[in-house]
Every structure is written in structure tokens, then in C-alpha cells.
């Protein structure tokens, strides 16, 4: 599919430091170490209700990864999917009387517009699962003995995956609970293990399906990301990412599929997860319906203030959205704009170094914002500083002043 237009990134003097990120699978902060090109896969939206602030927060986190790597001299190969056929999308289409394809297309287009407005760098490949059904079916065939049938559907046997549990580190009990909550079917009769997961859903009356060597049907959820990541990035890529609600089952199960299909481990060198944005005490989610849409906020506010409001929270934090977040961000944006319009200011290179240092340390955006606040509040005689700080904020934080 079409991606979205890329914003311009100003060149900065010198180069950034090696990026350190918290790796869920290692349970600690580690240096990323891309060999030349950095490769990143981030799970995309299920396009039935886009783009809420939770989505925006997650894609913004990986946008900072992308910008930090580029600044450190690594070209970035970034791939993202769109889950353009899946149960929740089909249910919403049915409930609202629209064709599921139209619903997906409209929401993906809205998502592209929101991402471009937020100045999120686009993926090189933006891939809808419906575009790659053949590749997904071929990958399932590659799983050999790990795949088995339950009434025509195809399941992955967790017993065939030696690393099952390595990504999340969750207990059996936690896994069962989350699997049931997040689209799994622990109680389905005929499975060998409650945590075995669906790879291919055989055709059902009234549901979309595609012909394949597995019989007519459609892909299960996790295998789509495994197939799209492997086809575009190959195994052992640098970062797989998404919100923390994807740690289990999605990234756990996807990693096992990749391992069994290719024989290579790790599937990704680091598993990176953004925190959940909530509203009124609950995770913002399409199924709960408590959403604040980026497109709605954009109607009445500067979208750069929306970006700054999200940046004010560490990407791994869980936090609650309130309208006051936006007011504070608008005030900050105005202060920064006034500060870069001055004829001179405090040392610009020192500020650049400070922002680089904060971002390289597991994307401490709040720390980077505080450094810019301090620069903006102080007086100085560096006549180059206002232009350099404007470029720093643009290139590394993605905020156009
Ligand atoms: N299509 C799948 C991934 S393959 C999916 O999870 N789609 S989604 O539309 O539900 O979410 C898209 C991305 O936004 C995921 O990375 C998800 O973890 C993240 N996300 C969803 N809700 C929130 C939230 N409230 N806060 C932060 N991130 C969120
Ligand atoms: Zn995914």
C-alpha cells in the first residue's frame, strides 16, 4: 500500500550517540547495535477506528527511535503492517452496515493523514495483510510439524516452540488470562494445548476468504506480522515494536513462529513496548469506545502541541489523557517559538548534546523537553543557537517550531 509523505529532517552537526532501549525480552535497557542499516518492524493499526491518542503515542515512540538512529548515522529500514482483515474489523463493518474493505480503506487513509500531520516518519513498506495472503500461507506451510488442524482451521502447537515464554516472561496463569482477553481461544475443544494459537481460519459463510494451499480461508493474527517482517526485513532485525498490550500473546507468538520457520533466534534483537494511554481510568481502546481522536484534536489545536503533549510522558509510562495536557503543551510550544525567534541564546551545541544524551538513554523525551525548556528560559550570546535549537527540536523531537 501507499505509505505517507515524509517530513524533511534538518541536518545537525556531529552525530548522535548509540541508542539504548528497554528490551522487554531481556528485561533491561540495552544498547541497540545496528550493523549499518537499522531494521525495525512496528505493528500497525487494525483499521476500524483510527487514530486515537494511544496509537499516536505508540507510533511517536518508534518515530523517536527512527530519528535517533538516523542521527547516529544509521539508515533506517522501517516496515509496518495494517491488519486490514480481522474479526474486530469485520464485526464493526457488520454492525455499521459498511463493506469491511471500505471501512479499512477509509480508516487507513485517516491514519496516514494523522501520521503525516504529526510528522511521524513513514515506513518504507506499509503492508496490508490482504496484500500478502500468499506469503502468509507459504510461511504457515514452512512451519511443518508445528502446525496442525482443528476442524479445518490450522493451529500452532506451542510445544513445538522451544522459546515459548521467552519474550514476555509471563507465568502460565498470566498467559492464559491475557490470551483469553486478547483475541485467543484457550477453551476451544480439539486443541492440543489451551495456548496453541490460530494460524489459518478456514472459510466461514459470510466471511471474506482467499484460496490457498491450506484451503480457502484467512490468516490468523500473529502470523501476518511474522510474514510481513520476515519478507521485508529478514530474521534477526533490530527492533520489533508496539504498545505493551502486544507483549503477550502477539509478540510472544510471532517470535515463536519466526523461530520455527527460520531456525533463527532471536527473531528480533529487541522487543520494545510503549505504555498505554488511558482516559477516565481505563485504557483507551476501540472496544471500550473511550477514544480521543487525533483528527478531532487537529480541528481546533496546533498538531505540534498534540505531539509535544505526548512527548511530555516517557514512552514506557502508562498515563491518563486530560485536556490540561494539551493546554500545557500549547504554552510550551509558544515559549519555544518565542525563544528560537530571538537574535541569540545560550550555547546551542550544548543543548544539542543534552537532547542527544537524553534521547539515547531509552528515549527520555521528558528529559529532552526539560533541557529545551531550560535553554528557552535562559539568556545567552550564541547567535547561531536559535537556528540550531530549532533544527534540533525538528530533527530529533519532530516538532516544527
Ligand atoms: N493491528 C494490531 C497489531 S498487528 C493492533 O494491535 N492494532 S491496534 O489498532 O489495536 O493498535 C495499534 C497500535 O497501537 C498497537 O501497537 C497497540 O499496542 C497500540 N495501542 C492501542 N491502544 C493503545 C493505547 N491506549 N495506548 C498506547 N498504545 C496503544
Ligand atoms: Zn502485529
Write the layout of secondary structure elements.
Layout: E1 20-23, E2 28-31, E3 38-42, H1 53-71, E4 76-82, H2 87-96, H3 100-117, E5 125-128, H4 133-142, E6 147-150, E7 153-156, H5 172-181, E8 197-202, E9 217-219, H6 221-233, E10 237-243, H7 247-262, E11 268-274, E12 277-279, E13 282-283, H8 294-300, H9 303-311, E14 319-320, H10 323-340, H11 348-360, H12 365-377, H13 385-397
Parallel strand pairs: 3-4, 3-10, 4-5, 10-11, 12-14
Antiparallel strand pairs: 1-2, 6-7, 7-8, 8-9, 12-13
Helix pairs in contact: 4-6, 6-7, 9-10, 10-12, 11-12, 11-13
The chain binds 5'-O-(N-(L-cysteinyl)-sulfamoyl)adenosine (5CA) and zinc ion.
Characterization of the model:
This protein is 42% helix and 15% strand. It has 401 residues and is of the alpha/beta class. The strands form four sheets. It has a five-stranded parallel sheet with strand order 5-4-3-10-11, with helices on both faces. β10, α7 (247-262) and β11 (268-274) form a beta-alpha-beta unit. α9 (303-311) crosses α10 and α10 (323-340) crosses α12 (365-377). It binds 5'-O-(N-(L-cysteinyl)-sulfamoyl)adenosine and zinc ion (ZN). Zinc ion binds at residues 43, 81, 225, 250.
What's the average pLDDT? 97
What order do the helices and strands follow? EEEHEHHEHEEHEEHEHEEEHHEHHHH
Beta content comes to: 15-25%
How far apart, in Å, are the first and last alpha carbons?
A: 31 Å
Strand order of the largest sheet: 5-4-3-10-11
Quaternary organization: single chain
Write down how many β-strands occur, each being a DSSP E stretch of 2 or more residues.
14
Output the number of helix runs. 13
Query: What is the approximate shape?
Result: globular
Q: How many strands, what sense, and barrel or not for the largest sheet? A: 5 strands, parallel
Estimate the helix proportion, in percent.
40-55%
Distinct small molecules bound, one entry per kind? 5'-O-(N-(L-cysteinyl)-sulfamoyl)adenosine, zinc ion
Amino acid at each position: 500500500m501507499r505509505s505517507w509523505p515524509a517530513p524533511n529532517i534538518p541536518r545537525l552537526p556531529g552525530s548522535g550517540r548509540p541508542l539504548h532501549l528497554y528490551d522487554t525480552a531481556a528485561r533491561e535497557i540495552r544498547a541497540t547495535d545496528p550493523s549499518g542499516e537499522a531494521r525495525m518492524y512496528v505493528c500497525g493499526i487494525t483499521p476500524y477506528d483510527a487514530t486515537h491518542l494511544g496509537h499516536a503515542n505508540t507510533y511517536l515512540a518508534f518515530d523517536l527511535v527512527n530519528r535517533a538512529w538516523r542521527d547516529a548515522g544509521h539508515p533506517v529500514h522501517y516496515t509496518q503492517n495494517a491488519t486490514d482483515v480481522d474479526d474486530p474489523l469485520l464485526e464493526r463493518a457488520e454492525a455499521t452496515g459498511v463493506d469491511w474493505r471500505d471501512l479499512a480503506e477509509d480508516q487507513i487513509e485517516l491514519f496516514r493523514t494523522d501520521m503525516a500531520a504529526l510528522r511521524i516518519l513513514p515506513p518504507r513498506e506499509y503492508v496490508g495483510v490482504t496484500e500478502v495472503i500468499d506469503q502468509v500461507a507459504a510461511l504457515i506451510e514452512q512451519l511443518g510439524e508445528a502446525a496442525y488442524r482443528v476442524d479445518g482451521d490450522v493451529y500452532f502447537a506451542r510445544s513445538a516452540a522451544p522459546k515459548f515464554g521467552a519474550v514476555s516472561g509471563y507465568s502460565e496463569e498470566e498467559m492464559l488470562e491475557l490470551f483469553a482477553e486478547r483475541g485467543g481461544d484457550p477453551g476451544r475443544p480439539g486443541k492440543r494445548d489451551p495456548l496453541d494459537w490460530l494460524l489459518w481460519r478456514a472459510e466461514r459463510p459470510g466471511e471474506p476468504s482467499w484460496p490457498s494451499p491450506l484451503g480457502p480461508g484467512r490468516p490468523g493474527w500473529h502470523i501476518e506480522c511474522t510474514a510481513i517482517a520476515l519478507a521485508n526485513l529478514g530474521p534477526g532485525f533490530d527492533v520489533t515494536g508496539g504498545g505493551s498490550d502486544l507483549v503477550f500473546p502477539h509478540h510472544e507468538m510471532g517470535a515463536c513462529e519466526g523461530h520455527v520457520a527460520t531456525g533463527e533466534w532471536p527473531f528480533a534483537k529487541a522487543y520494545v513496548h510503549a505504555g498505554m494511554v488511558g482516559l477516565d481510568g481505563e485504557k483507551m481502546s476501540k472496544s471500550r469506545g473511550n477514544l480521543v481522536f487525533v483528527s478531532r484534536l487537529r480541528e481546533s489545536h496546533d498538531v505540534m502541541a498534540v505531539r509535544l503533549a505526548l512527548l511530555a510522558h516517557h514512552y514506557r509510562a502508562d498515563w491518563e489523557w486530560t485536556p490540561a495536557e494539551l493546554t500545557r503543551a500549547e504554552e510550551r510550544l509558544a515559549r519555544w517559538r518565542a525563544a528560537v525567534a530571538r537574535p541569540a541564546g545560550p550555547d546551542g551545541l550544548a543543548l544539542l548534546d543534552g537532547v542527544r544524551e537524553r534521547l539515547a538513554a531509552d528515549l527520555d523525551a521528558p528529559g529532552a523537553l526539560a533541557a529545551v525548556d531550560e535553554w528557552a528560559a535562559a539568556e545567552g550570546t550564541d547567535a547561531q543557537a536559535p537556528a540550531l535549537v530549532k533544527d534540533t527540536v525538528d530533527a530529533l523531537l519532530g516538532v516544527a517550531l
